[in-house]
Amino acid sequence: GDRVWGWPGHVIDIIAVFATLFGLTTSLGLGAQQATSGLHYVFNVPDSLNTQILVIAGVTSIALISVIRGIDGGVKVLSNVNMTFAFLLLLFVFLAGPTLQILKDTWNGFSTYVMDIVPLSNPIGREDDSFRESWTSFYWAWWISWSPFVGMFIARVSRGRSVREFITCVMLIPTLVGVFWMATFGGTAISQVANLGTESGVYQNVIENYNDSLAMFAMFGDMPLTMITSTLGIILVLVFFITSSDSGSLVIDTITAGGKTEAPTAQRVFWATIEGIVAIVLLIGGGLTALQAMVNATGIIFTVVLLFLCWAILQGLRTEPR
């Protein structure tokens, strides 16, 4: 109710800002690592911290331009271009890879996920504690830290839509696309390892040398048009994080401006710049470990807020007239 305009609301806003900031900087840091690995794999660019810093600086610079231009002139244009490239890359891998196996993997993966999501969410009696603590908890905290800015941004661009349209277009369709994407890329990589064994790029770079950031590029290395697909993959990684950075900056700007959607441009530039600086500082200070620690801290705190939001939306739907 009206208490959101008092100190409880201010506390929630502060938590949301920090959760969004560290969620985005974690993504930016991991994206820089993957892009740098791709540049090294394809163009022999040094895979170093300095290169990662340059990548973050480049992403932040383009995000600044997009933020200044606003949603229609910046975010929307980049998002449309990115989704076109992503669709073309997905279509290529689907057709050039083991197509029938990908279709089977899509169905098997989706059905297994639906059946096992509840038991796999239960931490009691599990023997894989180290994996759950180091990765599962990190991913959940990471996703939750994205929820303030993703929720507010989607709400802003979905104004006028019905609840049914919102659920279909925001929850169901992206989930199905995500399942198909994972099955296509993951299924192709697994098929390469199964057929080529130790000669496959995925085995040599990911399984043998534990370089996860090279997985996609190693997979492209055993497919036709390697240079084109790898270059497109690098562009996609960068532009995905550019669109995340600029949309996240717009949302943080809205929160800190008290809900105003047209805050001063200098304020938007400030938050976009801060994201890049924090990502660089975390990479220099501790790399992946530092990124995980910060997103865990902010994501876990915002989980409490998220639980109250779940209750609030149920109450809102019950009282909303049909």
From TrEMBL:
Q: Which UniProt keywords apply?
A: Cell membrane, Membrane, Transmembrane, Transmembrane helix, Transport
Task: Provide the transmembrane region boundaries.
Answer: 12-32, 52-71, 83-103, 138-157, 169-194, 214-242, 269-288, 294-314
Query: Where does the signal peptide begin and end?
Result: none
Q: Which residues form a coiled coil?
A: none
> One GO cellular component from the entry?
plasma membrane
Subcellular location per UniProt equals: Cell membrane
Q: Membrane topology for this entry?
A: Multi-pass membrane protein
Keyword Transmembrane listed: yes
Instruction: Provide the primary localization.
Output: membrane
Concerning InterPro entries, the annotation shows: BCCT_transptr
GO molecular function of the protein, one example? transmembrane transporter activity
Q: Which family does the record claim for this protein?
A: Belongs to the BCCT transporter (TC 2.A.15) family.
Protein's recorded name:
BCCT, betaine/carnitine/choline family transporter
Organism of origin is: Tranquillimonas rosea
